[in-house]
Design goal:
Layout: H1 7-14, H2 18-25, H3 33-48, E1 59-67, H4 70-83, E2 91-99, H5 105-117, E3 121-125, H6 130-141, E4 146-149, E5 160-162, H7 166-181, E6 191-197, H8 202-218, E7 224-229, H9 234-247, E8 251-256, H10 263-273, E9 280-284, H11 288-295, E10 301-304, H12 307-321, E11 337-339
Parallel strand pairs: 1-2, 1-3, 3-4, 4-5, 6-7, 6-8, 8-9, 9-10
Antiparallel strand pairs: 10-11
Helix pairs in contact: 1-2, 1-3, 4-12, 5-6, 7-8, 9-10
Length: 351
Amino acid sequence: MTHPFRLREIAAQAGLSLATVDRVLHGRPGVRPGTVAEVHRAVAELERQRSQLSASGRAFRVDLVVQAPPRFSGAVRSALEAVLPSLRPALVRARSHLHDGASAEPLAATLRTLARRGSDGVVLKAPARPEVLDALAEVTAAGVPVVTLVTDLPSRARTAYVGLDNRAAGATAAYLLAQWLGGTGREDPGDVLVVRAGGSSRGEDERDEGFRSTLARLAPGRATVDVVDDEDSAAAVAAGVVRVLRERAGVRAVYSMYAGAGGSTAVLDAFAAAGRGCAAFVAHDLDGENAELLRDRRISVVLHHDLRADLRRACRVLLHARGVLPGPVPARPSQVQVVTPFNVPPVSLRG
């Protein structure tokens, strides 16, 4: 491998011994393929973060641990690496551990590894599974501060939560749909289709609670019907929506709680295939797909928050927890941005 980095830098970034990294870099046998991949990943991360390398002082290494579809986890990694220079004079480098799929055990194994090897802080997006919480307890017992991102975990298991106020976001969606659909739903029936991701997500549970409680108060006659994307597949979403529209003639509006790849388009295509109109469509997260649909007026509004700002705040929380920054640990959720075709911000979910 050709690179400008010192052996010690790569070893620290990879969380491996100098001897192991030396063996990998010189192509010597006896190293597991997974370890070789870790070294290559560490070099790639240092390459992406080279703008930080000229800073002086101790480097603080933050570990980003995410379980999400690659589209979202990649956006989080890009956003984190983009904000690192703004944290100067502190020198912060990031190591990414991105997981996909339904099983939480690989992510839990990553957390246990960090508990053993050490870290200056963890930014974590993970489901509230028992194996995750057990591994997280090992991390915190090792003295490593943890910030949960986008979806929270029990407060005893982390230092702070950074991300959207999910309950307020769900309530905002309910308020907007109640206004657009009009009435209470008793004299003007109209059900709301709710699309959410599969798996266990406290963030989406909070959005759901905020949405349903507020809709029940503002429009008690309007029913909701769910489509759950257990497969992270636009085709699965489309099939679920087609089935609902076939069975429920009163569905007139959509609240999509997450930004699955192709999901918004799949919902709209299912309405079109059924010859049905969608009176109002509230989506989450301003990715490329939702931004285009919003500009084309195919969806009504996008509920959004600045991912880079969240990650900058997450790093600052970790620096406070480490005593690098003075004062108490700052912790407050992000407020939802209501984005229309007329106020689309330049920075999207992609970071």
